[in-house]
Amino acid sequence: RGDARKARAPQLCVKPFWGDLMSEYMLQQVLSWSAAGSAIATVLLACVAWYQLHHLRTQMYEARQSEKRQKTLEVCGRYETDQHLREAMKYLWEQSDGGSDYTRLRASDRFHVLTLLNYLNGVAVGIEQGVLMDELARDYLSSVVEKSVKALVKGENGNTWQAASGIVDPEEFLPLVRLQENWSRDIAAAA
Q: What phi, psi does 144 have (nearest 5°)?
């Protein structure tokens, strides 16, 4: 009895479903080719993914640029449409004899000067922070920034106006002063 239990159990021979039709060599070839095909497919998928990501990045950049352009146009358009700015500019125009004599402005005119300069300083900060497009804003507001900074902040005379001294401290409007200097340099270089 002990010997009978120790007798070998019959070994099961499991053959693949294709039976004897495919030799071991052929099986190895199929596996090799399928591995190579899988590697090629992976590389192709990676290329497609890179291509899609590249175009997605391009579309996102273009969307950001379009948004910046729109925001810049809105902010620049406020110069002509904002009621408070219009009133301040009208007042300063009248007090400076049609924008030609800023020596006539007094301390009591400071509110209107600050209204205009705060708006322009906001544009300068937006440009410095990359929220607004520099070139588009320059095309729209360069002459206003130039005259406002020179006449109202620095107290400098221009070709068509006189100014004795700045009405505000230039330190209060550093972004605006930097913007005016950059734009003056860019315009001079382009001429």
A: -65, -45
Residue owning tokens 């007798």: 7
123-158 per-position pLDDT tens digit: 999 999 999 999 999 999 999 999 999 999 998 998
Structure tokens given for 125: 């900060």
The string of DSSP letters for 86-132 reads HHHHHHHHHHTTTTTBGGG--GGGHHHHHHHHHHHHHHHHHHHTTSS
Q: How far apart are CA 121 and CA 145, in angstroms?
A: 9
Q: Do residues 119 and 82 make contact, with C-beta atoms less than 8 angstroms apart?
A: yes
The span from the CA of 158 to the CA of 150, in Å, is: 8
- The predicted-structure confidence for 95-130, as pLDDT tens digits, reads as follows 999 989 999 988 889 999 999 999 999 999 999 999
CA 141 to chain CA centroid, nearest Å: 20
- Distance between CA atoms of residues 105 and 162, nearest Å: 11
3-state helix, strand, coil in the chain (%, to 5): 75, 0, 25
DSSP 3-state of 157: coil
User: What global pTM score does this model have?
Assistant: 0.71
